[in-house]
Design goal:
Layout lengths: L13 H18 L1 H13 L3 H12 L5 H8 L5 H15 L8 H19 L1 H10 L3 H29 L9 H14 L11 H46 L4 H29 L1 H21 L9 H8 L2 H12 L4 H30 L2 H14 L20
Helix pairs in contact: 1-5, 1-7, 1-8, 1-9, 2-8, 2-10, 3-6, 3-15, 4-15, 5-6, 5-9, 7-8, 7-15, 8-11, 8-14, 10-11, 10-15, 10-16, 11-12, 11-13, 11-14, 12-13, 12-14, 12-16, 14-15, 15-16
């Protein structure tokens, strides 16, 4: 289906896009708690860098549900998945201070992962649907809201454990349920599924198989390469900074700076990719992220934070472009393709995180592990050639 001519394009639907973005913001405020609280949780629960990464598998394992949820989102309204997720995730993440051991922590993160899957499978497809033909801009708003949440989350978590103590952290769950209430009130009139006919529904199974055979391997390796930088920093940045002599409060602030500039990058990159092209934008931002990672870890300790704004601006701007690219490759099966991509992304992220943690434990230093991760991200870039911007063959709608 050709793009709508610019002279006849409708205005950008700011209100419904910003409502879904609000849900992303509220949800990701709380998912940011784990990384920044690791300097407290790790010694209390006996976690080293490898096991801290392994525990993240529990949180990402429910991503296996994403293709199923995405498949359902192409058929039924899953509005309530998007509405309930912020409150459920807030409840789970604010109980981190109450877990007695690593096994209980893994169980809690698994339950949070179910809530995360409920939100992330249908929400980007919903944004793509309501923002078309401005898909890149819509994804930028959506992802920027998530990055803003991950910028606010570390500051909120550190403030809460300092003022309220770790045991009183669950009181913050009220903020998540407030967001759920707002979404329940304001999303009542927003349709959360694509309009599809019977022939399109029957063709979906064949589409999923063709899509995976064509794009699965290069996409998986690209996601894994990105996970070494984005996943590694997202999990270990506060721990790394405290090992360098920064206090937890200082580390939380610098993590917030990293995430806040990531919000700016996410806001700009999707729109930029509408003009520059998806693959070029992914290649440029990944190369810059690898360069700034090297500069960050090789700089003397007092100068390390100088690189965090540039690192956040580049590393965290990749995801909205990848989401927009996935939507380009599956215009008639947006939620199903998005579910497949997010399942791969969430499941491969802990592989990168755990591998980086293992390298840091094995070599006895963070720096070489981060540099190796940045190199692997660069080596994955040639695989972009196999992600053609021409949409995959779709079922012809019945007339």
């Amino acid at each position: 289906m050709p793009d709508t001519p610019s002279s006849t394009r409708p205005p950008f639907p700011y209100l419904p896009v910003l409502l879904v973005a609000l849900g992303h913001f509220a949800h990701d405020v709380f998912t940011a708690f784990y990384g920044v609280l690791l300097p407290i949780l790790a010694p209390a629960l006996g976690l080293n860098r490898t096991t801290a990464g392994l525990v993240t598998f529990a949180r990402h394992l429910p991503a296996l549900l994403n293709p199923v949820l995405g498949y359902a989102a192409d058929r039924i309204s899953v509005r309530w998945f998007v509405i309930l997720a912020p409150g459920l995730t807030a409840t789970g993440m604010t109980w981190l201070g109450w877990v007695p051991n690593a096994s209980t922590l893994a169980l809690l993160l698994f339950l949070v992962g179910v809530s995360t899957a409920m939100f992330h499978a249908p929400a980007p497809a919903l944004v793509a649907q309501i923002s078309h033909p401005y898909t890149g801009r819509g994804m930028s708003f959506f992802m920027a809201a998530g990055e803003l949440g991950r910028a606010i989350g570390p500051v909120l978590a550190v403030w809460a454990v300092t003022v309220l103590t770790l045991e009183r952290l669950p009181t913050l769950a009220l903020l998540g349920w407030l967001a759920t209430g707002i979404l329940a009130w304001r999303l009542a009139g927003v349709e959360a599924r694509a309009q599809r006919n019977h022939n399109q529904v029957v063709a979906s199974g064949g589409f999923v198989l063709r899509w995976l055979l064509r794009l699965g391997l290069p996409l998986a390796l690209l996601i894994l390469g990105r996970a070494f930088i984005v996943g590694g920093l997202g999990t270990y940045l506060a721990w790394y900074l405290t090992d360098q002599g920064y206090t937890l409060v200082q580390a939380g602030r610098w993590v917030a700076v990293y995430e806040f500039t990531g919000m700016v990058g996410a806001l700009l990159s999707g729109t930029m990719s509408d003009f520059l092209g998806r693959r070029r934008t992914v290649a440029l931002t990944t190369a810059l992220a690898a360069l700034f990672t090297a500069a960050f870890v090789l700089s003397p300790t007092p100068w390390k934070p100088v690189w965090l704004p540039l690192l956040g601006l580049s590393a965290l701007s990749i995801q909205p472009v990848m989401l927009a690219l996935i939507q380009d490759l599956a215009p008639n099966h947006r939620a199903a393709a998005n579910g497949i991509y997010l399942a791969m992304s969430f499941l491969l992220r802990p592989v990168g995180v755990t591998s980086l943690g293992y390298m840091a434990d094995f070599w006895g230093q963070w720096e070489l592990a981060f540099l190796t991760g940045a190199t692997l991200a660069l080596l994955s870039l040639p695989l972009l050639h196999f992600l053609h911007l021409t949409p995959t063959k779709q079922a012809t709608p019945a007339t």
